[in-house]
Specification:
Layout (H helix, E strand, L loop, with lengths): L4 E6 L4 H15 L2 E6 L10 H5 L10 E4 L8 H7 L3 E3 L7 H5 L14 E6 L7 H14 L3 E5 L9 H10 L3 E5 L3 H10 L3 E5 L13 E4 L10 H10 L4 E3 L10 H14 L4 E5 L1 H4 L6 H15 L3 E4 L9 H18 L23 H10 L6 E5 L2 E6 L2 E5 L2 H8 L14 H20 L28 E3 L2 E3 L3
Parallel strand pairs: 1-2, 1-3, 3-4, 5-6, 5-12, 6-7, 7-8, 8-9, 9-10, 10-11, 11-12
Antiparallel strand pairs: 13-14, 14-15, 16-17
Length: 475
């Protein structure tokens, strides 16, 4: 069988780093390679049409790999080179990860935990507001929309809202202890009641739906056994929620109650209301959700109730949707929940690729054009162009240096308003990356996990120059 030979296409600036990476990578992965260094400084400025007229593909090549930034139709390069063509990663330092994809990636994504997403204080909202919020929650991954009622009063419109939600295709639960509200919701199509204890359990057989049983006194589980026995005798389907307590109010003991209930009722379905931790703790919700769903996965709790009220928990449903897949895979395959779900790593990046000062100096020495490159390394922002290498921790100070970097202490000729705005935007991103220890790549959105907002490629086009009576790019 022929050994794979990959022909890598790059520009002058990346040649040295690419050759070093391939020298280490190729024997580990098991492929031969060649490097085609085209007459352009920055590989990101290449287009398929430009490459097609210049590529030189060796006969032994099995496929051609272009830089990830090379946008457009690759078929013109395939026709020119006579070999399959693909884009590699946008950063060549990610080539090892590109070739070392997880063997279990195709197995990832299954789950068995159901997400109930509560819309709080529904009686205070219009039906349109409730339907709009329900759509958003369902799109985020919610399986059931929980209609939250206000205690101390009976909401006459609960049935109408439940029916409207059902008409929109949602599964619905009702969060109330009021038997009149519950009865109206159940008649309209609610499939689950939160919550039932000794105060309302005798009405449960009339509702015809599943209920969530909670103890009368969570700290002692008082009333739980009697309610469970009554509902079991009446053949009412149920799941049990021993009630999670906030930190400082019995959190550790409440986790113990879930273990105790699982021991007492090993065959009973269980639920955990996780909002008591995510909503009531000064911390971003993602990691808390992962830990709580990991606990649920291990002991067999197959439904969680969450809310998105406080601002730091406004993406809890999406976080739970990803977390349930992560913990399922970890438990089922007995692997660590690590390097499986990058979308849950938001504040800091899982990995930051570094450049040494020597590498940066070498890059700066190779640049021959007036386009600006920005790097964020070792606590400093680096601004590099032909004959210019400025660095500093303060982007304002770096820009002040740039304003006097041209001969005679003047501003560079290409520093117009558009360029200045662009550099300010990119250096602000670079400073954020340095502050949070994130990877910064010029013209790329910072990676905020599931909250990442893609950015349109904003690098300003290369300055054109006349050559032999025609315009050319940076060659």
């Amino acid at each position: 069988m022929q050994r794979e030979h990959i022909h890598f296409v790059t520009g002058r600036l990346a040649e040295h780093a690419l050759r070093e990476t391939l020298h280490d990578l190729s024997p580990r992965i098991g492929f031969d390679y060649s490097v085609d260094v085209l007459n352009i400084t920055v590989a990101a400025l290449m287009t398929p049409q430009w490459i097609a007229g210049r590529i030189n593909v060796p006969a032994e090549t099995t496929r051609v790999m272009l830089p990830g930034y090379c946008e457009g139709d690759l078929s013109v390069v395939e026709q020119a080179g006579g070999r399959p063509v693909q884009r590699g990663p946008r950063d060549l330092r990610r080539l090892p990860a590109y070739f070392g994809q997880s063997e279990t990636a195709h197995q990832y994504g299954a789950f068995d935990i159901e997400i109930l997403a509560e819309i709080n204080h529904c009686p205070r909202l219009s039906r349109e507001e409730i339907l709009r919020e329900a759509r958003r929650l369902a799109e985020s991954g919610a399986d059931v929309i929980d209609v939250g009622c206000d205690p101390g009063e009976t909401w006459a419109g609960v049935g109408e809202v439940v029916r409207a939600l059902r008409d929109q295709g949602h599964r619905v639960s009702i969060d109330s202890l009021n038997v009149l509200e519950i009865a109206a919701a159940a008649e309209a199509g609610a499939e689950l009641v939160l919550s039932v204890n000794s105060t309302n359990c005798r009405a449960a057989p009339d509702w015809g739906c599943e209920v969530v049983v909670v103890p009368d006194v969570p700290e002692t589980l008082e009333g739980l056994e009697a309610t469970v026995e009554l509902l079991a005798e009446k053949q009412v389907r149920l799941r049990i929620d021993p009630v999670l307590s906030p930190i400082g109010f019995g959190f550790a003991e409440s986790l113990g109650r879930y273990l105790e209930v699982h021991r007492r009722y090993p065959d009973a379905e269980m639920m955990m209301g996780i909002g008591n931790l995510t909503e009531l703790t000064d911390a971003d919700s993602a990691a808390i959700n992962v830990l709580l769903l990991g606990f649920c996965q291990e002991i067999g709790i197959r439904s969680v109730l969450t809310t998105e009220v406080i601002n730091w928990a406004r993406s809890s449903v999406r976080e739970c949707d990803l977390a349930r897949r992560l913990v399922y895979h970890a438990v089922e395959h007995q692997v660590l929940p690590k390097h499986l779900e990058p979308r849950l790593v938001m504040l800091r990046d899982a990995e930051v690729l570094r450049r040494s000062k020597a590498e940066l100096a070498q890059l700066a020495a190779q640049i021959r054009d007036s386009n600006y490159r920005i790097f964020a390394e070792d606590g400093e922002i680096h601004l590099v162009s032909s004959g210019v290498h400025l660095a500093g921790a303060d982007p304002f100070a770096v820009f002040e240096q740039l304003l006097t970097s041209a001969p005679g202490g003047s501003a560079p000729k290409n520093l117009d308003a558009s360029h200045a705005f662009y550099l300010g935007f990119e250096m602000a991103k670079a400073l954020t990356a340095l502050t949070l220890d994130k990877q910064y790549e010029q013209d790329e959105a910072l990676d905020w996990g599931l909250l990442t907002r893609a950015e349109k490629h904003q690098r300003l086009p290369a300055r054109r120059k006349k050559q032999g009576g025609r315009e050319t790019g940076d060659e």
